[in-house]
Sequence to fold (132 residues):
Amino acid sequence: MKEIFKNENLTLKHDADKDLLVQHWYGELDELKYKSNMLEIVKLSDTGYNSKYNLIYPNLGFIITVELQAWSYENVLTKATRLEKVAFIVPESILEHMIEVMSMEQTMEEAESLYETRYFVTVEEAMQWLSD
Fold:
C-alpha cells in the first residue's frame, strides 16, 4: 500500500492490487479543511487513484452539516465514476448507537444510488465485504 497524500487531517493510501483507496480522517476539522481535503481526493482520482473500493476511517468528531452534505454530493461523490463500494470503520459503540454518526450516514444516503455503503467494526470484515 502506497501513501499518496497526508496532512494534519487526512492520510490517503492506495493499494493498486486491490483497487482500494484508504482514507484516515483525524484532527481538528472545519468546513474549509473538509472541503479542501475532499477536493484533494477528487484531484487524486483524476490522476489515476480513482478506485473501485474505499475504506474510510471517519473523524467522528466532525459534524457534516446539511449544506456540506449537498456540497459533497455535488462536488465529490458524483465524480467518483469507478466507485462501487465504500466501507466505514467505526467503533462498536457507534454501530450500536448510529444516531451519534447520523450526519455521516445522511451524507452517504444520496450517494447510495451511486455505490454501496456499509459500516464495520473491524478492517477484516470490511475488507471481506469489499472483495466480495
